[in-house]
Design brief:
about 160 residues, alpha+beta, Mannose-Binding Protein A, Chain A, nine-stranded mixed β-sheet, 9 strands, about 15% helix, signal
Length: about 160
Amino acid sequence: IKSMCFKNFVELNATLSVGGDGSASLWSECFAVFQGPSDFTAAQTECADKKGHLMTVRSSVSHDTFSILLGSLSERFWIGLHLPSGCPDASAKLRGFQWVTGDSESDYYNWAPTFDSSCSPQCVSVSRGDNFTWATEPCDQPAAGYLCEFKEAHSNIMMKP
């Protein structure tokens, strides 16, 4: 398992959560690649079992992690973007797809030039061979593995009233 965290990447990838008791936690993103044939649903379940979710790629910074995590691996790996039902919307940034986190917020997109516009459940994978562009595939087809995202707490501090 190859993984990486942006522990020193606080300004761009951290979230400060303040609890009702005045405590605050600083969270950052960690990513890991898991190899082994898996369809999208199984990959999603495996990430959840590890207390994470399939990787969301909302910025070019997240996109840049592909080359580090996947190294010389050339096969396709699932990320957390899917079209659970309906038809794609070619005019939208995410083309009607949504992240496994349930939203479609993103400042970044990187669709492959050939886009499957069929109205069936589709999921997105990436590979080094395609310069990590987002390729759509039937969700029940196996990919070579998947990329998970985790949140990691860096510190707990007490906020003064």
